[in-house]
Write a structure and sequence with these properties.
The protein has six helices and twelve strands. By secondary structure, it is an alpha/beta fold.
Amino acid sequence: MTHIILCGCNGKMGAAVQNFVNQREDCQIVAGVDISPADTGVFPVYSSLNDVKETAEVVVDFSHPTALSSILNYCRSHSGTAAVLCTTGYSQEQTKEIQDASKELPLFYSRNMSLGVNLLIELAKKAEAVLGDAFDVEIVEMHHNQKIDAPSGTALMIADAINQVRGDGMNYVYDRHSQRKKREKKEIGLHSVRGGTIVGEHQVVFAGQSEVITLSHSAQSKELFAAGAVNAAVYMTGKEPGLYDMSHLV
């Protein structure tokens, strides 16, 4: 049995994680943490991770990037506790903090917890390896009007994967309103759309001479991200220090 502390338990993703855990018998949420510590009646909810009295094998975080340091410090002070970091919007400095902390802590970090999205990334890498610089690459992502960060962490994951195939020689261009020049070969365009209740859609466009190839993924419900997070939590139980991601599950 995997015991979980859920950070951001009273948010939309926190509710989705709870619903998914309730359908399983191999894991249990023993405590929650939220800046609005409303009691769920199912497990105790605290306003700070440091106040949690229950013990757990894994901390699952769907809260806010500002909570990162406190989560890492909690795992350091509770030997063997892993963390599944599902929050998006981490800065480059915070990403480096995660990488450094993984030398002493078991950390699972993915900017998207969907199995389908991670398959999309693998397909995009394959397409880039086959098509090369004869095709221009543009990435379009669409999300609901409450999403704060742009472009999405998933769009950056896709861009990073394609860039890796190109030997990290690509430049990222965010929209094009500030530029009045022809597109360069070593560009990956990233474009964000915010509106309504769109859960999450990503398109990778490979545009060549007289043909266009488009790879796409559409998320229909937040449940799929919750499923990925819970699967990761169960997977991380008892793991050695290191940095894990969805590639370990697929």
